[in-house]
Please model this.
Amino acid sequence: MTKIDSKIPQGPLAEKWSNYKNHQKLVNPANKRRLDIIVVGTGLAGASAAASLGELGFNVLNFCIQDSPRRAHSIAAQGGINAAKNYQNDGDSVYRLFYDTIKGGDYRAREANVYRLAEVSNSIIDQCVAQGVPFAREYGGLLDNRSFGGAQVSRTFYARGQTGQQLLLGAYSALSRQVGKGAVKLYTRYEMLDLVKVDGRARGIIARNLVTGKTERFSAHAVVVATGGYGNTFFLSTNAMTSNGSAAVQCYRKGAYFANPCMAQIHPTCIPVHGEFQSKLTLMSESLRNDGRIWVPKNIKDAEAIRAGKLKPTDIKEEDRDYYLERRYPAFGNLVPRDVASRAAKERCDAGYGVGTTGLAVYLDFADAIQRLGKKVVEAKYGNLFQMYEKIVDDDPYVTPMMIYPAIHYTMGGLWVDYELMTSVPGLFAIGEANFSDHGANRLGASALMQGLADGYFVLPYTIQNYLADQIRVPRFSTDLPEFVEAEKEIQARINKLMNIKGQHSVDSLHKKLGHIMWDFVGMGRDAEGLKAAIQKLSDLKKEFWSNVRIPGSGNDLNVELEKALRLADFIEIGELMAHDALDREESCGGHFRLEHQTEEGEALRHDDKFAYVSCWQYQGEDKAPVMLKEPLDYEFIVRQQRNYKS
Model:
């Protein structure tokens, strides 16, 4: 069996990253100019990586699917970014951030990677403050912090409910500086369609100009994928419409392992589905759970009356409200991790206590906070989020409690990477949400921004040099090499095949079918019977897609439907991979909840004796079942325990 080498440095946990940096290979400034690096993606991970590598002196080609890096999906992150500064003097530390992250991920992440993430978190805040990111400040002038799920300290730095936007503007300014200097060449409205390997190493990509429809070849000494996650496999998710897992699937087909694909996060505070014609869902920040209290009626008749429109939530007396998270998890209350809060909401709604017209909603109520703090204070903290909710729902959350329900949000799975953030393909790196490495089976809130910027600013600039140090004598690659020609031919053949199907069904209608299969069988609750059914349904859908999809227009021009079709083909493949992985993992952990494996109290039941590993899936060819390899998760420094948020 193939042995998976994660390249974790030896030595004490707190010294691994320092030891690595002290002994890694470097590239001197004159030689950096001779090396080209492709960075695909311009979100927080991609923009920070491209800016940092450009600043170091490498020649960087940066690809952006949007018309500007400022439109990357990182802009949608609302609540904050974690760091162990301990400004609140409430007991935080690098170790506590590390442990909370490992525990929040239900002990299914690598110790060394997560500790490094916690270790560099403080540098991220310093970097962003230097860039002018307008973090909230307290009276004394220090940066303010608030609490987030899965932690009992306040370590989340924020800029109202616009943290992702402000951090992205900081990264964009750093990127723009390098573009202005000529160190980074920015390609906007380009989408990666394939990875090119030469002699077993990643040496370039095939990308499609989304404005002209032309496919183009690009070469480099290394390729960095920073393209986010694959949550849109579920059709309805909190992700932007252009967020997709296509680049990861392309790398998977070229030999990169796909790790823990079944680990998808359900976010508990999303505006509920309100119709058949939605194309995406809107997230309400987890930060709202700091002051908002989640409840449903205690009496099922009250819930029925609310659903029928005979009662309003404000008609329900305090003693008749079930603040179920506070009841079930007294130590953490409304700030339990996302997977725990999501399952608790589903359980209440499945039991008949859900509200709204569909019964698939619970209340997030700010009445207590407004009474305790005053409306002005609540407005200063969350005003733009309340405004967004009112615009979408046409209800004033200062008066009537918000309605929320869980939705697909983030994917912890992704391309397998080692400690250096390199995939199983030499020269191919994956950073941010595109890789699997830091969040295990469930990501804690405010950790996505932390990982994206940690990877781009403070990890990849070191580790990629270790790879490139022996590449300085390798001349630049011609895109006329047979490998590039063949890759472009294959892409063009795929496009021609899609355009020539001329079937009956639109791309969106088939994507909705995929979404229903995924949510119903590979969603919040999974079991063996449902996962087997999903695998068959996904196989049938794949045949239907490749025989009956209808794509209007031309394959050689601007064509949004063709873009969506190429991504949907990849989403179907990801769906199959997720179902296979979920079926194989006969335990519950974090966001992966197998109904057959739960405690008497309905909590996730891990089986560490059998499943304490990263599942690494290896592509075997079209219509062939993938092979799963295992990277054991050997914990040297912490002891796995049943997660407890009750005491």
Q: What stands out?
A: The first strand starts at residue 36 and ends at 40.
